[in-house]
Amino acid sequence: MVPLSWYLVLAAALFSLGLYGALSRRNAIAVLMGVELILNAVNINLVAFNRFIVPAAVNGQIFALFVLAVAAAEAAVGLALIIAIYRTRDTVNLEDADLMKG
Amino acid sequence: MPITGTQLVFLVIALATVASAFMVVTSRNLFHAALWLVAVFFGVAAVYATLEAEFLAVVQVLIYIGAISTLIVFATMLTRGMMLGRMPMRNYQWAISAVVSALLFVALVLVLFQINWPVVQAAVPDNTVAMIGEALVTSYVIPFLAVGVLLSVALIGAILIARER
To answer: What is the pTM of this model?
Structure first.
């Protein structure tokens, strides 16, 4: 059987890569992809803890389902915002989206 | 410790997933990054399958690969001026971001190997799908309804924000 720590290392690697993508990209869609990687890493952790620590229950899987639903809502609203910004400012570069900067 | 067949399968899946995730955050072409993201979602679905969470594996394929990556590909094509690689894809803080992310990874791995997780050796019940369905309409009914409201609001809000004026 695969040890729990392997799953946690995989999730940590995905989370770190997603964090790097969210912090270092200039394109808003690419930042959203980094956030999706982070959410997937969290879901791997939830399902792995469910499987190894409470195998007879499904609480971790239900939490992962809720994270997935929130991720879907976040992707829909985020991409709608990006398209609205593209329409009004003709860019999806986050450094140019400074309308609310003081 | 010799490596068993299951562990070998997991290692292959994990390496493919992490390599695809690396391509997602480093690819210069945004469209290629979106396609690598599909590979990551597929790898995560395979990881769920190795954890015997079949329902989540199917939902991952349906929602992430079927819906979210389609949305991302559409948004990439609608804003195509940025995807041709004429501008650098990284901002001025990419180096410090890389250092911070690498340090976070090292810290997480160091911590998780020090903790003695209370692992239980037991089999997964056969009817997990039925258990998930039952829990969603009994003990988790309020969060379930709240997520339904959230999805409706997000849907209406996305249409309102993105429509032509």
So the answer is: 0.91
